[in-house]
Design brief:
This protein is α/β, with parallel strands linked by helices. It is built from 14 helices and 22 strands. It has two domains: 273 residues, Aldehyde Dehydrogenase, Chain A, domain 1 (3-Layer(aba) Sandwich); 188 residues, Aldehyde Dehydrogenase, Chain A, domain 2. Bound molecules: adenosine-5'-diphosphate (ADP).
Length: 484
C-alpha cells in the first residue's frame, strides 16, 4: 500500500503508549475484500494483554481526569487536525481493508474526525447544576464526573468513525479507553492510534487491543471490575451477550445494535428527491450500515412511477474496486455476508417476490453482490423480518397511513426510519408514530455529530454525538450541603 505517511500502516496493538506485539508473537492475517489478498499480519492479543491495557488505562485515569476540560480539548483538537491532515492515507487504509469506495472512505474519515472536533469543544462543557434546597439550611449542587475506564467494541462497517464516535466523548469527559476493533478491520484503528500518539495523549489514555478471538477479549472487558463502562456497536445478538456479561459487575452500557429501517414514500412526495434519498439510504457502503433503508414502502398512487425510476437509478450504480474512479458499490465484507444476501433474496423470490434488477453475485467467488430491487414483497419474507446488510431493496405497496405505520413498527428494532411526503399535518403524525430513535423526513441521510445518534427497542440505548453524547461517559453526583 502506497501511503504518504507509511507509519500509519501498522499491525501492532497499542497499549500504554507503546506499539506492541502480542504475547508469544501471535498474529492474524488481514485481507482485502476486493481481491482476497493478504495486507498485513496483526498482533493477536488475548485476555492477558487486555488485562494489562485495562490496568494501564486505570493508572492513566488518575491524572487524565484531573486535567481541565480545556487541556483535554487541546489534545483532542490536535488529534482531529492530524486526522484531517492525513485524510488521504486514512481513507486508503480504510478502502483497502474494508472495500468501500475511496470517496466514501474519505467521507467516513471526515465524519469520524468531526466527532473529535465536536467533543474537543464539548470537553469544556461538562456542566453541572444547582437545585434550590428543600430545607432552609440546605444547598444542592449536581456535578458530573468521568465514569472511569471505558471499553469500546466496534464493528467493521465504519472502522474509523465508530471508534472516534465513542472515544472522543469518553476522552473529553476525562475517561480513559480500551478499544477492541473488529478483527476484519483493525488497520484503521491502529492508524488512529499512531495519530493519537502524535497528538500527545499521555500513555495509557487510549489503548487498542486487536484479536482474532473477540469472545476472550470481550469476556475480559466485560468481567473486569475496573472497566466501568462498555460502549458497543454491532449486531443485536452480540450486544445481548455483552449486556448479560456486564450485569455481573453492573457496568454502565451503551449499545448501538441492528436496525430494520423503513423508508416510506407517500403519494405527495417529491419523487426525484425520494429516489435520490432512497439510493443514498439504501446503497451507501453497499447496504452495510445499521441505518440503511431495509424495507421500502411506497403508496399505491406513486408506486409504479417510483419503482420504475428507482430501478433505473439502481441500474446505473457502478460496482468495482473502491480505488477506481466512479465506483459507488464495493465488495461486501466477507463470504458469509454474500451468502446471507443470497439466502434472503432466494427466500423472497421463492415466496413470490418479483426481481426487477440484480439478484446475484457479480462473478463466481467474488464478494460483489449486484444492486438488487425486489417488488411484490410481503411481511412473511426474510427481507421484511431481518436486517439485510447488503445492496438489496425490497419494495412494498401500501394504501393508508395507518397500515404503513403499523407495518413500519412491526419489528423488534428501532434505530432509523425515513419518510417522504409534503402534507405537514401527516409529517407530524407519522414522525410521532414511528417507534424509532431517529427519523429522516425528506432526507436519506441523518448522521451528524451535532445530533444524538441511537436507537430504541432492540436497537439499543445510549446516544452518540450532540450535547447529550458526553452523558454516557459521566456519572452524576449530587452534593447536599447542610448547616448553612
Ligand atoms: P457484525 O455483524 O457487524 O460483524 P458483530 O456483532 O459480530 O457485528 O461484531 C461487532 C464487534 O463485536 C466486532 O468487533 C466483533 O469482533 C465483536 N464481537 C463479536 N462477538 C463478540 C463476543 N462474543 N464478545 C465480544 N465481542 C464480540
Amino acid at each position: 500500500m502506497n501511503l504518504k505517511n507509511q507509519r500509519l500502516l501498522t499491525g501492532q496493538s497499542f497499549i500504554n503508549g507503546q506499539f506492541i506485539n502480542a504475547n508469544k508473537q501471535k498474529t492474524f492475517s488481514v485481507t482485502n475484500p476486493y481481491d482476497g489478498k493478504h495486507i498485513i499480519d496483526v498482533a493477536d492479543c488475548s485476555a492477558s494483554e487486555t488485562q494489562s491495557a485495562i490496568t494501564k488505562a486505570n493508572e492513566a485515569f488518575v491524572s487524565w481526569r484531573q486535567l481541565t476540560g480545556t487541556e483535554r480539548s487541546t489534545i483532542l483538537r490536535r488529534w482531529f487536525e492530524l486526522q484531517m491532515e492525513n485524510i488521504d492515507d486514512l481513507a486508503m487504509i480504510l478502502t483497502v481493508e474494508q472495500g468501500k469506495p475511496l470517496a466514501e472512505a474519505k467521507g467516513e474519515i471526515r465524519y469520524g474526525a468531526s466527532f473529535v472536533e465536536w467533543f474537543a469543544e464539548e470537553a469544556k462543557r461538562a456542566y453541572g447544576d444547582t437545585i434550590p434546597g428543600h430545607q432552609r439550611d440546605k444547598r444542592i449542587v449536581v456535578i458530573k464526573q468521568p465514569i472511569g475506564v471505558v471499553a469500546a467494541i466496534t464493528p467493521w462497517n465504519f472502522p474509523s468513525a465508530m471508534i472516534t464516535r465513542k472515544v472522543a466523548p469518553a476522552l473529553a469527559a476525562g475517561c480513559t479507553v480500551v478499544i477492541k476493533p473488529s478483527e476484519l478491520t483493525p488497520l484503521s484503528a491502529n492508524a488512529l492510534a499512531v495519530l493519537a500518539q502524535d497528538a500527545g495523549f499521555p500513555s495509557g489514555v487510549l489503548n487498542i487491543v486487536n484479536t482474532s478471538t473477540p469472545e476472550k477479549v470481550g469476556k475480559e472487558l466485560t468481567a473486569n471490575p475496573t472497566v466501568r463502562k462498555l460502549s458497543f456497536t454491532g449486531s443485536t445478538e452480540v450486544g445481548k451477550i455483552l449486556l448479560r456479561q456486564c450485569s455481573d459487575t453492573v457496568k454502565k452500557v451503551s449499545l448501538e445494535l441492528g436496525g430494520n429501517a423503513p423508508f416510506i414514500v407517500f403519494d405527495d412526495a417529491d419523487i426525484n428527491e425520494a429516489v435520490e434519498g432512497a439510493i443514498a439510504a439504501k446503497y451507501r457502503n453497499a447496504g452495510q450500515t445499521c441505518v440503511c433503508a431495509n424495507r421500502m414502502f411506497v403508496q399505491d398512487g406513486i408506486y409504479e412511477e417510483f419503482t420504475q425510476r428507482f430501478t433505473k437509478a439502481v441500474q446505473q450504480l457502478i460496482i468495482g474496486s473502491g480505488l477506481e474512479k466512479g465506483v459507488v458499490i464495493g465488495p461486501l465484507i466477507e463470504e458469509k455476508a454474500v451468502q446471507s444476501i443470497e439466502f434472503v433474496v432466494a427466500d423472497a423470490i421463492d415466496k413470490g417476490a418479483n426481481l426487477l434488477t440484480g439478484g446475484n453475485r457479480k462473478d463466481k467467488d467474488s464478494l460483489f453482490f449486484q444492486p438488487t430491487v425486489l417488488t411484490d414483497v410481503t411481511p412473511d419474507m426474510k427481507v421484511f423480518i431481518q436486517e439485510i446488510f447488503g445492496p438489496v431493496a425490497p419494495i412494498f405497496k401500501f394504501e393508508t397511513d395507518e397500515v404503513v405505520i403499523a407495518l413500519a413498527n412491526d419489528t423488534p428494532y428501532g434505530l432509523a426510519a425515513y419518510f417522504y411526503g409534503r402534507d405537514y399535518a401527516r409529517i407530524w403524525r407519522v414522525a410521532e408514530a414511528l417507534e424509532y430513535g431517529m427519523v429522516g423526513i425528506n432526507t436519506g441521510m441523518l448522521s451528524t455529530p451535532v445530533a444524538p445518534f441511537g436507537g430504541i427497542k432492540e436497537s439499543g440505548f445510549g446516544r452518540e454525538g450532540s450535547k447529550y453524547g458526553m452523558d454516557d461517559y459521566l456519572d452524576m453526583k449530587y452534593l447536599c450541603w447542610g448547616g448553612i
